[in-house]
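step: validate -> pass
step: tokenize input -> pass
step: predict -> running
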Amino acid sequence: MNIKSIVLSEGNSKALDQYMKTEIEKIRNFFNLEIEKLRTGRAHPSIVEDIRVMAYGGEEMPLKSLAAITTPEARVISIQPWDEGTAPAIEKALREHESLGATPVNDGKVIRITLPEMSSSRRSDLTKLLNKKTEEMRISIRNIRKECNNCIRDHKKSKAISDDFCNRLETVVQKSTHDGIQQLEAVATKKEKEITTI
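step: predict -> pass
step: emit ->
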């Protein structure tokens, strides 16, 4: 749905409500995926699952499509290739991945990565990055508010809705914006705790 396709009529704000909910949900989902990739002291499959591996005659594939990825311990990622023939290519891709900061160990069946303890400066860098991403998402939600308010004002200007209904809609839009930002911040606070304490 596009904001320009929304038609408001007196007493009917369903399309606008739906647009706002959908757009905020997209932002929240994107934010969750982004911060899942931020490495805390705890191992998580998302740290390695999208690493590209050259397998099967030069075809580049994400690691998650070639192996089962688990975290048997807090700082250990275990990668079990479904086809043992791909193990050397997986190991090579892991070794070459610069942001991993750990060396994979291959026992022939399973490749294990033990993540190093995080330094306080690394924790500080990750917290700054988290705050930057959170602010970007706040701005995205506020941009949706701006789009919705512009849509409301356009309908008011063309006399499709009354001043009173316009004011009510702007209040609803503001509440949705406030709730969306609060939910983002709750997720960010939880992630920051993980980064700084684990």
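step: describe -> The chain has a mean pLDDT of 87.
step: cleanup -> pass
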